[in-house]
Amino acid sequence: MDGEAKAESIFEFLTARNPDIHYQTPHSKSLTTVRNSLYPRQLKTWDEFSFSTLETVYGRRLIDEARKGRSSLAYPSVLATIDDVVHDEPTTTHALTVWNHRIVATSLQAVQGTLHPSIWVPRRRKGQHETDKKTTKESTRLEPDAGAVSICQNCCSETERLPKDYKVASKWRSSAIFGGWMTGKAGKWTPGQASKPEAKPIRQVYTYCVKFGCRYGCIITTQEAFIFRIKLRTEVSVADANGDSSRDEAALRQALSTNGLMEYVSIPWENHRQGSSNEYRALTVNLALWFVHILAGNAHEVDWNYPNLWEEHLATGVCTTNDASENSEPETDREDSEPPQARRSFKLGSYSKKRRRDSGVSDDPHYSFAAVFESFTTQVPLLSLQ
Q1: Looking at residues 343-363, what average pLDDT do you find?
Q2: Backbone phi and psi for residue 261, each to the nearest 5 degrees, phi listed first
Q3: Model confidence over 123-155: pLDDT tens digits?
Q4: Taking a C-beta distance cutoff of 8 angstroms, is the pair 98, 83 a contact?
Q5: C-alpha–C-alpha distance, residues 274 and 289, integer Å
Q6: Of the given ranges (171-180, 266-275, 367-376), which has the lowest mean pLDDT?
Q7: Alpha-carbon distance 240 to 214, whole Å?
Q8: Helix, strand, or coil here: 9?
Q9: Which of 164, 211, 236, 289 is deepest in the core (most CB within 10 A)?
Q10: Half-sphere CA count of 4, side-chain side, radius 13 A
């Protein structure tokens, strides 16, 4: 894609063809994992996460914003043999950052005042906090490759909302699990298969979501975006879930650890718009990632039950980055003052200790998101939006 080419709407921007990726033999065939990881007891296709839902959710405000005419949506330049060659996780991360991250982040920035999105934030630069010697053993294991936080400080901007992992496409594809013998027709694991290497990425991101209290997560490769939501296999009645304050997120987290369901959808890398954007009606990798970041910006926490996806509501009291930095102080950390079961939100600074190597994102739970966002925009330039 020519870096000087421009889209005329967010929808057009997000449905452009992804770059052709050239693969080299990976140096290693192993997959990173999380020790003592959890796993969903059942996996099921997430039929609600669809283009049809994208068109109707939030009273059609999302699709209206996507199709709204805009200027200066310039596609990033992709340099041949530099940005499109993949053989390991760092080169995968680079390819995804150059193209997908920049397009999705720009598109999220464009709707920050209307759709209350979360913003895709990269991993911390390696060695940034070498002086921090108090990291717990648990937190060192909980290291997603990227995450998402709210632009609005009034909404607990330091709270992790959408953990992500990047995987090398030649090492992992979701079809290895769902298209073969690892799971049965009902989505339950075939005996012994949940411990196989192919299941490690699923276990890894599921563990992130349970520990961070996030309902959404994803695995991204240069072949697919594997996007999911976690919930209980057995729904809990409203009276049961809300009638007893002791049924807090600690109990919910325990239930998800032993009886969880992962609803998933895999969006192929090759999906893209051809011809008129008005006639295109399918999710692309970038469009799906934009969609799930908006969902996570408005309601990200795990719960005993969820409404239908098309019945989700936009968060109230939407504010901009400037409003937040002028009118709000970062939320006081409650890590030391309250027991885990009393905390409703899961802190990015408390649990998520891994960020992209080229990021300046701080792990301090009291950091200013305005500073984070400024740092983020210098690492992944957000194009001007008019």
Answers
A1: 35
A2: -125, 135
A3: 755 544 433 344 334 444 578 999 999 876 565
A4: yes
A5: 19
A6: 367-376
A7: 21
A8: strand
A9: 289
A10: 0
